[in-house]
Amino acid sequence: MPRVFRPAALLRHALLALACLAPLALPASAQQSGCILDNCADRRPPVQQDAASPVSYDSFRPRPRGASAPGDFDFYVLSLSWSPGFCATGGAGRNPVQCGGGQHLGFVVHGLWPQYQHGYPQDCGPAGRSPSRIALDQTNGLYPDQGLARYEWRKHGVCSGKSPSDYFADVRRARDVIVIPPQLRDASGGQTWAPLDILRAFEAANPRLRPGMSAVGCRSGVLQEVRFCMSKDLRDFVPCPEVARQTCHGRQIAVPAPL
Prior knowledge:
Elements: H1 7-25, H2 28-33, E1 64-67, E2 75-82, H3 83-88, E3 107-115, E4 120-122, H4 133-137, H5 146-155, H6 164-177, H7 182-185, E5 191-193, H8 195-205, E6 214-219, E7 222-230, H9 241-244, E8 253-255
Parallel strand pairs: 1-4
Antiparallel strand pairs: 2-3, 2-7, 5-8, 6-7
């Protein structure tokens, strides 16, 4: 006798078939990680930077923690870029002014970044218009050019909760706190350093700086920058395990001579 399927039974069979096929429709990355749709948002790869933007070293930074209110953060990270290292690893094509001969630039400000103990704030509200010329003039002698200062304000300064003028004043205050070791301040030729020795040289030149309060960033075996964790009032250095763990772990790195 032929088997008769009732409508309800047919519906159950159809739903079971769809449930079995659903995992096949997900991207491979979602199947492997167990996340679906927006639950994977925090695991998506970072957006590639526009070619016109300054070279980013965010690969050395902890992951962003999401949208935040301006002024809501735990401490600052002051990042000082070794300009010759930036120029030696692709920066010359992006900023010919900074990397032109005769500048003799050593450490320059890359940025002053609000930071959490875990991750860092982003999307702190609309950046508004670019800082005024008056505010940008405060950055002369800090950043290699005002274009970087403007970019850093839009990306990080807005998260400070301060006006552009007050934020750039804090950048100068933070930079003035740091004493550059004479071996790097007075460098006239290329050198080779162990990253740990760079950290120790800065600790010797800055007595309040302790292990676990700074980090060295490198790329392709070349010094890129040194980062310092500072209190929100910029009066002292603070421990920052997550930042310190991002330090370069190569045995030795090149420190190109100033151009």
